[in-house]
């Protein structure tokens, strides 16, 4: 999976949805992310919920594949952002084609 | 004699003792009962030792197994009266993603507790039990016991048990060796303490038992937090307990048992000054 700098739109949606799942304010979550050096460890179940919510928010439902659902992809904010971006790019390419 | 009872102060020491017993028995036992206090935290050094082996063997972590019984990362107790409803909602969202996986891995134990496949749709057994416990807790003559699995149907109109959580679904679960290995969870109220008993038809002690115990502890703590009870004891019965010697090798399993036994014994003994 390609590694690149964070996409602000995807990251903003991720933070909004993770804050919802955790039942906390986005500001509080951003402080935690800052303290974690820009990344945050996520429980894998929370990762599944966030991924499902982000798919809907970014209009890419079904883009995350069964094989994407592993600990590496779902257990940190950064890896989840990379996964969403990769699948989003694939989805865009199909639509453009 | 077939049945055994292992009692530990916490799940780590109970699991370690049970694993040692299984190794001594050649790798298997029938009607193995393991009991421990639900409120006690597990020993992280024991968990790390097991997680290292599971990673080496390409297996899921202890936390992954525990999450199938209670997804602790989705529970936000600081939400107070809305915490349980939030958990059920977020769990349902997570399950939409989970169901895309392998057809044999589309359900979880927690999902059976909150979305039991009943004749007329899904039924939230956990919510029902918590409501019952909230009503029973203030009563001096509170109901204490659950009914037997053969008598229970969580959706029947005459179902009045206060603490009966059925996992196995007779109409749906036809795979002899597949999900679910955990058949039934029973809660017993000894005001204000609440105890949990779980019945496994088959339990693997390297891959699953530790995570099972951790998940059951978290499940009991959740029910207690939502109903006003105090976490009591978890007792887990494995009608068939398997140390997985054939899968992981006798030397590896025996070394794991020796290591975790030493870790839990070292914790019990006070340090010499």
Give short descriptive properties of this protein.
heterodimer, A: 97 residues, mainly alpha, globular, B: 273 residues, alpha/beta, Thymidylate Synthase, Chain A, 7-stranded mixed sheet, two-stranded antiparallel sheet, 9 strands
Task: Characterize this entry briefly.
Chain A has helices at residues 8-22, 26-35, 44-57, 71-74, 77-96.
Describe what this molecule looks like in 3D.
The complex is a heterodimer of chains A (97) and B (273). Chain A has 97 residues and is mostly helical. Chain A has one domain (8-92). Chain A is 65% helix and 0% strand. Chain A is built from 5 helices and no strands. Chain A has helices at residues 8-22, 26-35, 44-57, 71-74, 77-96. In chain A, helix 1 packs across helix 2 (26-35), helix 1 (8-22) crosses helix 3 and helix 1 packs across helix 5 (77-96). Chain A is globular and about 40 Å long. With 273 residues, chain B is an alpha/beta fold. Chain B has a single domain, classed as Thymidylate Synthase, Chain A (2-Layer Sandwich), CATH 3.30.572. In chain B, 41% of the residues lie in helices and 21% in strands. Chain B is built from 9 helices and 9 strands. Chain B has helices spanning 11-24, 44-56, 62-69, 83-98, 109-114, 125-136, 209-227, 245-248, 250-268, and strands at 4-8, 28-37, 116-118, 121-123, 164-166, 182-190, 193-200, 203-204, 230-242. In chain B, the strands form 2 sheets. In chain B, strands 1, 2, 5, 6, 7, 8 and 9 form a 7-stranded mixed beta sheet that branches. Chain B has a two-stranded antiparallel sheet with strand order 3-4. In chain B, strand 1, helix 1 (11-24) and strand 2 form a beta-alpha-beta unit. The termini of chain B are far apart. The model of chain B is unreliable at 146-152 and 157-162 (pLDDT under 50). At the A-B interface, helix 3 of A face helix 3 and helix 4 of B.
